[in-house]
Structure formats: C-alpha cells, structure tokens
C-alpha cells in the first residue's frame, strides 16, 4: 500500500530489481498544476453487489465495480465484518461506515476522495489506505489511535500534519505527494518504516524522535546532502536514489544499515562506509565513479563480510571498462555474490 527509482509502498512500492528503486510509479506526481475536481457522473449500480456474501462475512472485497456510494452497500447487514476493500471505484464521500464500528482494515485506494471525513467512529481501525485519491490535507483522524499502517500515497498533500495521536503507527506512506519539508513526526515514536519518495523534499531533518525507524525511503526528491540521521541508530534500510547528493557522508551512527541505496546521484567517491559492518546491499549505479573507485571499493567494502550485492553500472568505472569491469569488481571484492543485475 508506501516499501529503486520513482516510493512505491510495501503494497505498491516494492523494490524494483532492475532499476534498484523503491518508489511509487505515478505519472505527474511532481506537477504543481491542479487537476480538475469535476468528475464525470457515475451511474449507480442497481444490483446488490453484496447479495452473495454471507451475513457473518468478516472480509468484503469490492474492487473495480464502479461503486460511488458506500451507504448504498447497506453494510449494516454484516455485523462481523473486520476488513473492507473498495479499491478502484468512484467513491467521492466517505460516509455510511458508522454501521461497522468494529472495522479493523479499510482500503479506499484509487477512488475520487478529496476530503477525509466519516472515519472518526472507526476507533478499532489498524490499517487505513487512502492512496491514489485527491486528498490535500491530513485531518479528522485524531480518534484513530489504534492504526499501525497508514497510507496516503499519490495524493495532493503538501504538508505533513495532524499525526499527533498516531503513536501506534509503524508504517507511514506518503510517497508521490507535494511535500517539501519533513516535519511534525515527533509523536510517531513507534514508527518502523517511513516512505517519502517522489516529493519535493530538499533536506533530511526532524527525524530525531524516530528512534525505532528501520526503513527510510526518500528517493526522487531534491536532496543534496546526507544529514540528520545521527539519532536513527536502528536504521537498517536507507533509500536515497534519484536525488542530487554529492557525497556519501553522515552515516557515522547508522551502523545497523544492511541496505544503502545512493543510485542516480552525483557521487564521485566511494567513502565513509567502511564502518557499516552489516551492509548487505550497496546500490550506487549511475553516479560519477571513475577508475579510482575500484581501489575505493576495496578500502571501503573489502572488509565487509556481510556484503552480497553491489550495483555500480552506469558509472564511468563501468562504461569506460566494459570488457574488464566485472573482473575488476571481483578483484576488489572477492567474496561478492552479485554484481549489478546478474
């Protein structure tokens, strides 16, 4: 629903092995142009799409059925329902859910929702997905204190706000929005995964309170420097591809990193990572590493016994040495298991 080139989510942003990116693949997510809020009228469905569901159903899946009205579903017929999925429909207003107060999972991915409302009574929710809608503001969610997974991928959100009561959230996905500043996350003390790819963020900041963070994905933004990560000592996966970073630095305290993605930046040296003794994946393709970086590989990663994979294609060290590149990498890293995609 967030978790290598444009923040996809663990549901919709999985690591893409060829490009080594973990992002949301959405066209036009960086545009400032407002899309029309006027949608073509949708005909109401006459048939009862829930007619075949047993009264004791716990899961309801109604995907891509042109549903525009939640009240018309008459959900009060299903007192035991725990999970509702209404993906890829035409829902504009969140309403009619007060009849299922014990609902635990609600998926409204890919509808036409502009405003968050009608959810305050769903205090048992643990998962809420509002991705791929038209939401501009995060609000009216204060009562949902049991939520652990919260998804807002590909909306029109420009500010991280109103998350103070989400102390139990472990996974927050805000990829492909219009966010410029990392802020207002101090209350998310149990957060494990933070997905911010494909926004307009210029600086790594205000992350110090996220002591339990294991994964930070911030590809396809406007970063120029690795900084602000000193207090994230439990960080295991860091995805920074498709930015404008010029130097590998600022990772002194992040000794638990197992994956470091710095692909598609402006790096010229492999440096400041020799202390990352748990590193398994180093993705640094499409930078500006020259022939001198073969020696730097040995110096920085030669002693890292856990290292399994390096991605270095698209650098001058590869493009200028096409016939000998792989052999040179193996000489630098004799125990490496995978070089690039094969």
Molecular structure report:
- The chain has 342 residues and is mostly loops.
- It folds into 2 domains: 56-222, Alpha-Beta Horseshoe (Leucine-rich repeat, LRR (right-handed beta-alpha superhelix)), CATH 3.80.10.10; 247-341, Leucine-rich repeat, LRR (right-handed beta-alpha superhelix).
- 6% of the residues lie in helices and 11% in strands.
- The chain has 3 helices and 13 strands.
- The protein has a 13-stranded parallel β-sheet with strand order 1-2-3-4-5-6-7-8-9-10-11-12-13, with helices on one face.
- Strand 11, helix 1 (293-301) and strand 12 (309-311) form a beta-alpha-beta unit.
- The longest helix has 9 residues, at 293-301.
- It is elongated and about 70 Å long.
- The relative contact order is 0.11.
- Mean pLDDT is 90; it is low at 1-37.
Helices and strands in order, then pairings?
Blueprint: E1 59-61, E2 83-85, E3 105-107, E4 127-129, E5 149-151, E6 171-173, E7 193-195, E8 215-217, E9 237-239, E10 259-261, E11 281-283, H1 293-301, E12 309-311, H2 316-319, H3 325-332, E13 338-339
GO cellular component, one term: nucleus
Protein name: Protein phosphatase 1 regulatory subunit 7
Organism: Absidia glauca
Give the CATH class of the largest domain.
Alpha Beta
Distance from N terminus to C terminus (CA atoms, Å) equals 29 Å
In the predicted model, the low-confidence regions spanning at least 5 consecutive residues are 1-37
- Spatial arrangement of strands, main beta sheet: 1-2-3-4-5-6-7-8-9-10-11-12-13
How many beta strands in the DSSP annotation?
13
> CATH homologous superfamily name of the largest domain?
Ribonuclease Inhibitor
Beta-strand percentage range: 5-15%
Quaternary state reads: single chain
Q: Considering DSSP H and I runs of 4 or more, what fraction of the residues is helical? A: under 10%
């Amino acid at each position: 629903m967030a978790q290598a080139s444009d923040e996809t989510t663990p549901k919709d942003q999985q690591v893409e092995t060829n490009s080594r990116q973990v992002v949301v693949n959405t066209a036009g997510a960086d545009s400032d142009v407002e899309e029309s809020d006027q949608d073509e009228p949708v005909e109401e469905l006459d048939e009862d799409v829930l007619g075949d569901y047993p009264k004791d159903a716990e899961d309801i899946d109604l995907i891509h059925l042109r549903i525009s009205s939640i009240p018309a579903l008459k959900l009060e017929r299903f007192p035991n329902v725990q999970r509702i999925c209404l993906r890829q429909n035409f829902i504009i207003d969140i309403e009619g859910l007060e009849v299922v107060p014990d609902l635990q999972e609600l998926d409204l991915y890919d509808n036409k929702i502009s405003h968050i409302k009608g959810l305050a009574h769903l205090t048992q929710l643990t998962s809420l997905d509002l991705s791929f809608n038209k939401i501009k503001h995060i609000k009216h969610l204060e009562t949902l204190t049991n939520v652990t997974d919260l998804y807002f991928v590909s909306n029109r959100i420009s500010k991280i706000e109103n998350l103070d009561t989400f102390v139990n959230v472990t996974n927050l996905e805000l990829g492909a929005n219009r966010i410029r500043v990392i802020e207002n996350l101090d209350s998310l003390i149990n957060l494990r995964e933070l997905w911010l790819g494909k926004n307009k963020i210029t600086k790594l900041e205000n992350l110090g309170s996220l002591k339990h963070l294991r994964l930070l994905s911030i590809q396809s933004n406007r970063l120029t420097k690795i900084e602000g990560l000193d207090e994230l000592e439990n960080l295991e996966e860091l995805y920074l591809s498709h930015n404008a970073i010029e130097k590998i630095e600022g990772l002194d305290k992040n000794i638990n990193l197992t994956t470091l993605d710095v692909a598609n930046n402006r790096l010229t040296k492999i440096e400041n990572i020799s202390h990352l003794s748990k590193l398994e994946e180093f993705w640094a393709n499409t930078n500006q590493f020259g022939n001198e970086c073969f020696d730097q590989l040995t110096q920085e990663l030669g002693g890292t016994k856990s290292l399994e994979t390096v991605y270095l294609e698209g650098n001058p060290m590869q493009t200028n040495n096409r016939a000998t590149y792989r052999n040179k990498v193996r000489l630098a890293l004799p125990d490496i298991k995978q070089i690039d995609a094969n």
